[in-house]
Design goal:
The chain is an alpha/beta fold and about 350 residues long. Helices cover about 45% and strands about 15% of the residues.
Length: about 350
Amino acid sequence: MAALLERGATVFLICTPKAALEEPAHKLGVTIAPYKLDRFNLIRTRSRMRKYLKRYRPALAHSTGYEADVLLRWAAKNLPVRVVSSAICGSWPPRGMGAFGSWVRRRLERDSLRRVDAFFADCADLVERVVAFGLPRDRVVLDPPGVSLSRVAREAVLPFSAPTGAPLVGYAGALEHSRGLLVLAAAVPALRAIYPDIRVIVAGEGPARARLLPAAADGRIELLGRVESAPAVLAALDVCVFPVAEEGTPTSLLEAAALGKPIVASAVHGVADLFEDGTEIALVPPGEASVLAEAILGVLADPAKAAAMGERARLRLVDQYSSTAAVERHLSVYRRLIATLR
């Protein structure tokens, strides 16, 4: 939105009341319309959105999230507005409560997808899934996740008291169950067989914290809880570990790459698509603690190779996965679509 405003565009935001995006958008000067989804009357909600589109007549509307996507596509039918959707590989195709709920959501997605002029997908596997679902390939845009290099650099120098004198490996970020951190805890005995004094730290908060408490109690990991800066923790690690169990891209993995840190991660879609295994990142099968430990030990055993791997990942991120690159990809698509309206 900031980039669009800088280029003289008029930007409108439709969002739920008190959404996280509302305040920063308001500070930018974006016109905001509070949005409430009436789950029991989608026709009414669709009518409200259609009236909004007719009133403001945007050249392009970009939605995120299944419910907003379907409603926008319905509302924009036969109107002169380009429709853009975006999804991350872990959230698409949409799933509902139970088999019937998932069937309904996928049917609505399929029926409304034909109205999409561009669909941003964050990994190559998702591109193929969307094409197989029926959207023409020339409407699907590969859009890897991005991270702000300036923010990471700024936060990386915030105070963090890191343990010294021993190898330090671990994770910093949201403690989601999908992060697979129990696998990291299970890998610790194999790490200590080679490095008895190794320190394994996990920083952050989230729903997976409770399941990590036994590993913290028996000394396998040090559970730091909330920290002022995840990049500051990542910058202190000898190896950043992301044993993710589900497809998707943790923001903190990109932050580690931005810092040029050696990374060991699971080979899932959304991670394996971003960096080259062996030269930019060390990839392992998800859920296998012994293989994870072996990969971490391999990185620790060759510091020069590890440093070179981290630097290659950093260069890749600067070229392809910075927030600046992501913004330019979006603006390029927006310009192309709007030009076809003239």
